[in-house]
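Researcher: Please translate sequence to C-alpha cells.
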Amino acid sequence: MALDIFIIGLDQIGASIGMALAQSEMEVNCTGYDPDNEITRRAHQLGVVDQVTSHPVKASKIADVVVIATPSIDVRDLLETLGEVLKAGAIVLDTTPFKAHHTTWASELLPDERHYIGAMPIIGPQALLAEHPDLTTPRANLFQDGLLAMVVPPKTSEEAVNLALQFAAAIGTTPFFLDTMEHDAVIATVLGLPYLMAVALMKMATRAHNWREIQRLAGRLFINATDIDPSQLGKPQAYTLHLNRDVVINKLNEFIDELMALRDLITRDDHTALETYLTEAIKARDSWLAIRQSGDWAGQDLKPSVPIERPSFLSRALGFRPQRPKDHK
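Model: Translation complete:
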C-alpha cells in the first residue's frame, strides 16, 4: 500500500525531495503545497509531486508522512496546525536547519503517537561541487550520495524511525544521527557563520570611504566571499538567526577569537608561523573537500574529537553499531 507523503514547501529542497521519491522504489502517493502560487505552478509543471493542493489541512489529515520544507519562521504555526489534524502514527520530518526550538515545540504541540524527527538533507557531492551550482532549480539527484542529518527525540517510536530510514534511502541519502545541540552547533558553523561572514564583509566594504574604488577592483575572490543565497534574505533569515542566537553567537565568538589570533599572528614578526597557519588551513580544506566529494566518512582524520552517539534506544531497537574505519593496507 502506497504511503501518503505530504510536502509543505515546494522550493528547491521540497521539490527535489518529491522528484527523488518519484524515482525511488518506495511506493508513495506524494502531495505538495506551497503558499506561493508561482512556486506551486512550477512544481505542477515539473511534475515534482503526484498532485498539488490548495487545502493543506485536508492533505495533512490523511498523510503518513509530512515533510516540512518551509522557512523556519513558519514551523511553529505548522506544528500547531498539524497537532490538531494528524492521524495516529503519522510522522513529521523537519528539513529546516536548526532543530532545538522545533523539537521543543513538537513535544508541546503534537499529541501522543504523532512523531517529530529532524531530518535535514545534505546536498550530495555531485550537486555540491558542480562547476556552476544552481541554488534554485529542483533536481531528483540533488541529495544523491549525501547524508540525512537526523535528530530523533527520545520517545520516538521504532516504527517512525524505520519509516524515516526508508525515506532517507528513497531520496538517495545515508542517515547520520546527532543530538539536538550538536546538530545545531554544526549548522551554526557551516550555514550560519558563512552567511554572516558574507553579510559582514559586504557591509564593511560598502561603508568604506573608497567603496567606489572597491567596486572597480573586486574580482572572483570577493564575489565568492560575499555570495549570499537570495532565498536567505530578509525577515525569514533574521528570524532564524535571532531564534537560534545562543548557538549562533557562540560560534560567532569563536570565529572572532580566531580572527583576532590571526591578526596577532600577522602583527608578529614571524613569517614562518604565519605561513604555517595558512598552509594548515589550506591542507585541512583540501582534505575535507576530497572526502566530501568521495563520501567516504570512515577516515580517521575528520571524525569529531568527541564521538557523537546515536540515541541509545536506536541501537537497541534497530541494531546499529558504530562504523569502523576501513583497513587501508
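Researcher: Any highlights?
Model: The chain has two domains: 3-179, 183-294.
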